[in-house]
User: Fold RanBD1 domain-containing protein from Geranomyces variabilis.
Amino acid sequence: MADEHTPTVEQSEGTGAGEDEVAPSVDVHFEPVMKLEQLDEVKTMEEDEDTLFKMRSKLFRFDKNANEWKERGTGDIKLLSHKESTRIRILMRREKTHKICANHYVTADMELKPNVGSDRSWVWNTTADVSEGEATQELLAIRFANAENANKFKEAFEDAQKHNSKLAGGAEPAAHKDASESEVEPDSEDEAAAAKEKEEAKTDSAPKAEEPKADAPKAEEHKAEEHKEESAPVPTA
Assistant:
């Protein structure tokens, strides 16, 4: 029989209730060793262009030294139209690395030919591909997943050729327009000179007043050539 003064198990457990209390935690703050700075957004020049065509494909180039086709990359080939000039170029980047493997304008002298033995592959020649930084002549071949995708690329390619050809042909009329505007609003000295030549033409039987007209087309032709050269920038990535 237990003594009245001997503590029981329940009483012993109750005496240690205060030992289960959790001490308040200390708020510890550590300063970062390095601060990450926000990097500036990298521009690819595609921000100034509209995507007219985009299709996954595999690109090859012909190596003249090895006399064989070599794979250049797999990715999305694009036809991009500049928002201001509307000129269209081909651009293709490799998957994952995003490295450029094709970058050139679509010109009228390019001929898209079917690859031998394949209905989903095309071959064409470009004289100024700048994917490696400098303009080089390349014989390229592209292969799509099926013939339907290949035909879609062909249609978009030929439409781009027609569009760029119209832009190139439209440079000369723009120069003639500038010349006509200068005739509508001439300087006062030019008006006086023109009036004097007109009076001399009436009194003189020799066609002296027609001589300046013969030089006018040459000046306009020179202006057209300058305008055409300025509208042909080198493609940039």
About this structure: The beta strands are 49-63, 68-82, 88-93, 100-105, 113-114, 121-129, 136-143.
